Amino acid sequence: MSLALSPSSTPTLALIALAIEAAVGYPAPLYAAIGHPVTWIGAVIAALDRRLNHDVDSFARRKAAGVLALIAVLALTGGVALAIVLVLRAALPGAAALVAVAVVAASLPAQRSLDVHVRAVADGLDAGLDAGRRAVGMIVGRNTGVLDGAGVARAAIESLAENFSDGIVAPLFWTAVAGLPGGALYKAANTADSMIGHRTPRHEAFGWAAARFDDLVNLPASRLAALWLMAAALVVPGASAAGAWRAIRRDAGGHTSPNAGWPESAMAGALGFALAGPRVYGESLLDAAVMGDGRRDLGAADIRRALTLYRVALGIQAAVLAVVAVAIG
């Protein structure tokens, strides 16, 4: 079996992809020329939403249509990913095919862009509240117009913690488990949830399958993300691994999401913050639980502390993956 498909090579594939993404991200000229896999998957989901999700249909019929749409998206994404692997395997020798597949897989995690966007919020807050609101509006869906400076900082740190889990740890985990098809299937599921998995009148039925499936596939990554953040707290000055553990045990299960509470509570407990809590989406107030029992009056310096913890957690994750790759390979 080619290295590009061998189960023993998938951790190595994930590690190479992670290194490529850390070095160059997803280049802007490439995005301008061909878009991004998420935009391609999103276009398919939007088309299925228009075609299958009809207001006149019953709740049960729309729910069934959502199941069908999710299966179609996963089948198409997985099929394309497997075809890419097979084509590269046929065209290139083993090690070269592995690297070529890793270049494609590097489009799945978003560690570099997450760092850039969260850092921009800290820089924006330094320039003023309006700039901070504009920057955080690029990474959160809540109503940023009602946020004060502390609210902007909390939103950025919450997004950093949650996206560390579902934007980096999860696609890396599934790539390490099942290669490019595994990572691509996860990305399709996560994109479907972000587009149609909300409990709105239009998507409560149609997006049910996407939301539940995303909860399932994010379960291992959310726990791993909390573990990496807790481990990072052991070496980051001023952070507390014990505080992270206490916050996870006390608060993670109280989050509105079965997964987001794990990295958010770990981040909050490690740094002595109190994150989440009530927030506004559009005109609606979401009365959510608080993660952590520390300070809520946060600022740009606290965002940068969270970024430091995040970067160390990335390093720990890469080191563990390297050990797994060597052990299995």
UniProtKB/TrEMBL annotation:
Question: How the protein sits in the membrane?
Answer: Multi-pass membrane protein
Q: Where are the transmembrane segments?
A: 29-48, 68-88, 94-110, 225-245, 307-328
User: Per the record, what is one GO cellular component?
Assistant: plasma membrane
Q: Which residue stretches, if any, does this entry annotate as coiled coil?
A: none
In Pfam terms, one family for this protein is: CobD_Cbib
Q: Name one GO biological process term.
A: cobalamin biosynthetic process
Q: In which pathway does it act?
A: Cofactor biosynthesis; adenosylcobalamin biosynthesis
Task: State whether keyword Transmembrane applies.
Answer: yes
Q: Which UniProt keywords apply?
A: Cell membrane, Cobalamin biosynthesis, Membrane, Transmembrane, Transmembrane helix
Q: Domain of life of the organism in this record?
A: Bacteria
Q: Note the InterPro entries from the entry.
A: Cobalamin_biosynth_CobD/CbiB (IPR004485)
**Single GO term (MF):** threonine-phosphate decarboxylase activity
> Main localisation, per the record?
membrane
Q: Does the keyword Transmembrane apply?
A: yes
Its localization reads: Cell membrane
What family is this? Answer: Belongs to the CobD/CbiB family.
Described purpose of this protein according to its UniProt entry: Converts cobyric acid to cobinamide by the addition of aminopropanol on the F carboxylic group.
Q: What is this protein called?
A: Cobalamin biosynthesis protein CobD
Highest classification ranks of the organism: Bacteria, Pseudomonadati, Pseudomonadota, Alphaproteobacteria, Hyphomicrobiales
